[in-house]
Amino acid sequence: MSFFKSLLVGSSLASLALAIPAYAQVAETAQDAQQDGGAQKPDAEARLGKVVVTAQKREQDAQDVPIAVSTLDEDLLDLQQFSDVTALSSISPSVNFQGGFTPSATNFSIRGVGSYAFTGGVQPSVSLVVDGVPYARAGEFVTDLADVQQVEILRGPQGTLFGRNSTGGAINITRKRPTDEFEGEIEAGISSDEEYLIRGVVSGPLADNVSGRLAGVYIDREGFIENSGPAFSGGDLGGIETFAFSGKLDIDFSPDFNVLLSGDYSNREHGYSPQIGSVGEVIRGIGPGGTDLDVTGGARALALGGGDAQRGQAILNDPLKTAISLRGDSNENIAWGGSIDATYDFNDNITLKSITALRHFTDDNGPDVDGTPADGDNLIMPIVSVNISSGKTITRNGGNYAPSRSVESDYFIQELRLQGTYDAFEWIVGGFYQDYEEDLLNTTPLLIIDSFNPAFGNGANVGGTATPNDEYVLSANTQDNNYGIDTYAIFGDMTFHLTDQLDVFGGLRWTREEVSKDLNNQTFFSVFTFADIASRFDSTKRILDTDDLVPSDLVVGKAKASEEFVSYRAGASYHLSDAVSVYGSVSRGQVGLAAPISYTDDLSFLEPTVADNYEIGLKSELFDRRVRFNTAIFQTDVTDLQASALIPGTVNTTTINAGNIDIMGAETDITAVVNENLTFGLSVVYLDSEIKDLLQSCFFDQLSVNNALTPNCNIDTNNDGTPETQDVSGYRSTNTPEWAFNTYASFTIPTQSLPFDFYGLVNYSWKDDVQFTLNQDDLARQKAYGLLDLTFGLKDKSERYEVFVYGKNVLDQTYVSDAFEAFGALGRRVVRANRNAQAYYGAGFKYTF
After folding, report:
1. N vs C: which end of the chain shows fewer Cβ within 10 Å?
2. 688, β-bridge pairs
3. Per residue in 573-601, pLDDT tens?
């Protein structure tokens, strides 16, 4: 790491040294120009360029679109040295990312509106679109940002044109098209956290009126979370090995008819975002020699430390350390798909567009259910993973058998749009169809001390002596569930230019969903003594022999439901001048029907979540287009949340319709060009969110051993005489910082005596503290933090060769992307951290031909 730090510091000093004469030369040139009566050429050329977006399904200047939209072009993406789309939250303060233990459990939110349920059968709240194709799951979107032309972040409900599941907004990614002339690029990189990267792209004509483009990327990175678990665990966690490629074929059949064929494939083996216990729970377990660990809370520390509680506590205190019996590359994602984008121009005013797509996504993983090195022959924890050979197959991770979970989805999409202009009208009408299928295979074999009560974190015999005669419960849940949805929609949108200054716009979208689910949930439940377990356990194969077990509980059946709903938008914009406009709008979006398919769910469905947004905004380009100043004020009302709730007395969650959220906010985006070599940017967002009418289970610290309650935990929903529920109305919504901002400066330092120019970027982002759980658990919070990223490089004047160094989170601010309670399973406080939670540095080389 010292090499990269030295290289980065050296580049910074060199850049500053060269900046003085470079800017002195600019000043001298300006003075000479004034003496000659001429204009200063550098300033004359220092103008903000036009930003073209497709936020309204047609190419427009972003300043003319009455929607709050942020854009990231390929130059800024390159400067930021993004590894994947999860890093968008570091440069767009309205976007927040919440990590899951697999990509399929991740969550994006925009303006505080995101998913509050993380189970299969629940649809996302932010639409994720690549080349016009809406992806069904966030997991498909956690991908390398290679060969990308532009990223658009549309804020607020986009239900009219982007359909359901865009209540928070949409992230619209456009990959580069094939070029008419032959070109290519090769990039290689290395980082201090042992990432090795190579990217390549080639593009150009293949025949008359036919051009193609092929891009590929390979990434191999070691894990960033130190794992001191057993030798068979396979090393540190969080690493990845990715191979991906995409291809495009651009065919002009005639001047009026174009077809763009696109395909992509990615294979990603990873330790993604493992669950790390950071606060040990007070539990009971059997220590060495049958000793009782009782109420000291030392069981987890002792297990993590391999018998050394002090060492284990040090691991608990560091979110970037763990000790589990899980391979670092135990998860695998495979995604592939293809699309046909056909465009026919009837004339200069009317265009027909068809987008046909087919996609597949597989997410296989094997989590360590107790978060320690314990297994079936080391019962130091109250819950450990074991193999159940009856029922579903268990995936072997190293030498330890652990739970297995596989999610597989396939879907087909067809969208047809007719759009055009007529006098003062711009209009679009269309239809949309999606056929989506998702299969979930899940096996969770657990061994539990029978006296363990996860609601209170201790057993009925706390303080007693645990002996080998104590009884244990083998609990295993297997799922073979299916979820399907057919979606039909028709939509229309128009803009009417009433005068040269005044526009009115509006749109409607009718959607019908037909949802089905097929559940086959089996629960195996059997009581063993410690002696029984010892006789059944095969220490060589590390398998608990359970062939004689039969399911004790079944949830089997099929169910169907359907729903129709309307999304809309309406508003007006007024151009105060050629450079300044104001707009006001009202819009509605929905998250579709939910069909939860976890093992705690039944055959019921959840109603759609609805978001109503009211917004006024200003867009302007000032000082002769040297400064772009855009701002918006909005109110978003979210009703019928699809939310996960803890089942009282268990560590399990279920999904319910519960509560509403009101969000009032303001956003400001400023871009300023000082001269042709220096640009500043600032984005600020304020969000005042409030939960309404929502009940949640109490978190652990609201309960004591003798069931004494804190004032907030005062609702007895199951009428057993013991309150277990609280009203969380009035609190902030999850993962929604009150304040967040991002600021950057990008610069170029031209030289005259050298064959290359210098460039760089300084980027700083800051987010206020956030709460990750709806039940307002005091330990499920992340304090405010800021990230400083730096990039410095040099590029030859022909722009063919480029060398760069970068630093991410150079202030080394440790933070977590998620925190929650998994009492008795993973710890009192469990966190997830991503790669950017620590400082790392890198260098790269790029050759363009």
Report:
1. C
2. 664
3. 999 999 999 999 999 999 989 888 876 77
* pLDDT at residue 9 in the model: 40
Q: How far is CA 409 from CA 104, 337, 438, 711, in A?
A: 11, 12, 4, 45
Tokens 């080394």: give the residue: 812
Which bin fits 753, alpha (ψ -120 to 50), beta or left (φ > 0)?
Answer: alpha
Q: Which spans in 247-349 are helix H?
A: 298-304, 309-316
- Spatial contact of 778 and 819, defined as CB atoms under 8 Å apart: no
Q: Tell me whether residue 499 is exposed, middle or buried, using C-beta atoms within 10 angstroms of its C-beta: 0 to 12, 13 to 18, 19 or more.
A: exposed
Mean of the pLDDT values across residues 399-416? 78
Tell me the pairing of strands 226-227 and 321-322: parallel
Maximum CA extent, the chain: 99
Q: Which residues, listed in sequence order, are joined to residue 637 by a DSSP beta bridge?
A: 612, 662
Quick check: 50 and 61 in contact, CB under 8 A?
A: yes
At which residue do the structure tokens 């040099």 appear? 794
Contact status, residue 323 vs residue 300, Cβ threshold 8 Å: no
Side chain identity at residue 385, one-letter code: S
What type of residue sits at position 709?
L
Q: 292 or 454, which is more confident?
A: 292
Weakest mean pLDDT among 183-192, 216-225, 264-273, 327-336 = 327-336
Q: What is the DSSP string of 140-207?
A: HH-----SEEEEEEEES--HHHH-SS-SSEEEEEEEPPP-SS-EEEEEEEEETT-EEEEEEEEEEEEE
Distances (CA, A) of 480 to 218, 435, 483, 687: 34, 20, 10, 41
Which contiguous run of DSSP H or E holds residue 589?
Answer: strand 580-591
Structure tokens of 825? 């399973």
In angstroms and rounded to an integer, the radius of gyration of the C-alpha atoms of the chain is 28
pLDDT at position 437, please? Answer: 95
Distance CA 590, CA 167 (A): 6
Tell me: pLDDT of 754 over 90: yes
827-832 vs 840-848, strand pairing mode: unpaired
pLDDT at 534: 60
Whole-number pLDDT of residue 832: 86
168, 111 contact by CB (below 8 A): yes
Contacts of 118 (CB under 8 A, 6+ apart): 100, 105, 107, 644
Interval 118-130: pLDDT, tens: 677 888 899 989 9
CATH architecture for the domain at 46-694+729-848: Beta Barrel (2.40)
In 10 A of CB 382, how many CB atoms? 30
Calpha distance 403→534 (Å, rounded): 21
Domain residue ranges in the chain: 46-694+729-848
Which residue is it, tokens 């990230």?
Answer: 787
CA–CA dist 735, 502 (Å, integer): 38
Yes or no: say if 146 and 74 are a contact pair by the CB < 8 Å rule: no
* pLDDT score at 465: 40
Which runs of E-coded beta strand occur in 660-738? 660-675, 678-692, 695-697, 713-715, 725-727
Contact assessment for residue 373 and residue 325, using Cβ atoms and an 8 Å cutoff: yes
SS3 21: helix
Alpha-carbon distance of 553 to 805, in angstroms, equals: 58
Q: Which two tokens stand for residue 142?
A: 């956690």
The amino acid at residue 592 is: G
Q: How far apart are CA 834 and CA 836, in angstroms?
A: 6
pLDDT in tens, 53-102: 998 898 999 999 999 999 988 888 888 887 677 778 777 899 988 776 66
| Residue 523 exposed, middle or buried by CB count within 10 Å (0-12, 13-18, 19+) | middle
Give the long-range contacts of residues 17-26, CB within 8 A, separation 24 or more: 18/749, 18/751, 18/758, 19/747, 19/749, 22/677, 22/749, 22/750, 22/751, 25/752, 26/675, 26/677
Beta-bridged to residue 515, according to DSSP, are: 485, 561
Q: Up-side HSE of residue 418: CA atoms within 13 Å toward CB?
A: 7
Q: How far apart are the first and last CA of the chain?
A: 32
